[in-house]
Amino acid sequence: MLEQILETKRKEIETIILPPQNNVKRISLINALKHSKRKPALIAEVKKASPSKGVIRPNFEPIAIAKAYEEAGAAAISVLTDQRYFEGHRDYLIQVKQAVQVPILRKDFIIDRKQIEESVRIGADAVLLIGEALEVKKLYDLYEEAYEKGLECLVEVHERDTLERILTVFTPKLIGVNNRNLKTFQTSLDTTKEMARLLPKESLFVSESGISSYKEIQTVREYGADAILVGESLMKKENVLSAVRELFGEVNSFVDTP
Ligand SMILES: O=P(O)(O)OC[C@@H](O)[C@@H](O)c1c[nH]c2ccccc12
User: In a structure prediction context, what are the per-residue pLDDT tens digits for the chain, which is 258 residues long?
Assistant: First the structure.
């Protein structure tokens, strides 16, 4: 699946027309995660569909969703911009960035410098770089390019090998462990557990995907996650504001009175 997505991306890159620079104030994702009141900090994702689940949220209003996430105390918002597989759009990111004060992560398959420039122009604060999608040298190149242009990077890994290869070249400031295997789409929090002990202690650590309950939040927190990235389980709920509070164990839908 990942290979197929990357193949589509390679073709798309040539067709990208760079939009004009959107006037924005850039905010640090890393700072926002570090100073979050919620622990672990929440990166809440704006995602209409995914290759594994199809359409998750038919009634998709990115601005309203983002505002609700912000109100619910999300430290940052992740916006899917891939059109083909996730029904996202770069315009959603432009709109969301203008509607909230928290930093925005561009969630896409970045494989070329042109996409970094595009991310700068649409107003992203950070971009995702996927370890399994890039050779280490290329990944480092894009990482440097992003930082030079004022963007931070979330470096995502799923496999131990990938992480080890990256760490021989550089230490990303922000590392995401994807609990989802992009080949099989299965998620397991054991991935977070196993990768945690290999992570450099100076890197901030995000556990990504497959988190849908308060118990799971506590589990990944015990494993050492500083932040979590959650999409589907929030997107499935009509009211995302209360969905966030429920996820963090703050509201009981039913309280049994004796
Ligand atoms: O919807 P979930 O299971 O809560 O996962 C969110 C996020 O981690 C997931 O969307 C994701 C993680 N890495 C990616 C890379 C590309 C696209 C999407 C992703």
Answer: 899 999 999 999 999 999 999 999 999 999 999 999 999 999 999 999 999 999 999 999 999 999 999 999 999 999 999 999 999 999 999 999 999 999 999 999 999 999 999 999 999 999 999 999 999 999 999 999 999 999 999 999 999 999 999 999 999 999 999 999 987 889 999 999 999 999 999 999 999 999 999 999 999 999 999 999 999 999 999 999 999 999 999 976 555 555
User: From the alpha carbon of 130, which atom of ligand 1 is closest?
Assistant: 15
Instruction: Specify the pTM.
Output: 0.96
Whether residue 156 has its Cβ less than 6 Å from ligand 1? yes
156 is catalytic: yes
- In the chain the first and final C-alpha atoms are separated, in Å, by 51
Question: Catalytic site residue 237?
Answer: no
Of 208, 216, 232, 246, the active-site residue reads 208
Q: Do 46 and 145 meet the contact criterion of CB atoms below 8 Å apart?
A: no
CA proximity to 234, closest of 257, 212, 203: 212
Specify the ligand 1 atom closest to the Cα of 187: 3
Give this complex's ipTM.
0.98
Rounded to an integer, what distance in angstroms lies between the CA atom of residue 191 and that of residue 244? 23
Domains and their CATH numbers in the chain: 2-12+26-247 (3.20.20.70)
